[in-house]
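thoughts on both lines:
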Amino acid sequence: MIDEWINQLTEQRVLYLLAVLAIAMIIDFFSGVLAAKIKQEITSKIGINGILRKIASMILLVFFLPVAFILPAYTGIAMLYVLYVGYLCLEIQSILENYKKMGMNTAPFRQFLLVLKELINKK
């Protein structure tokens, strides 16, 4: 039964999306630490809070993998996609905010994301 779930998740590429999300979380964490170091606002309390938030988020995201199979048909897989893509968008926004704090120009990235959003909405 578990093998069937994993095969179905792999076929739907949900696990790949979760892996991309994990990579984005890592980039967000390290870019946040670097931005805090540059702005000389780095504290252990903020760092620990960031780590705990990332761990709690990942636990929540993984928790919904088996929950997706309780829902009928492919609504569970659709729920996972919405959850993961939404969370990925938030992580990308956070990464861009960290880069902006470091003094980098994020306007080209934001423009690219707007064009991508418009392209997705047209389909």
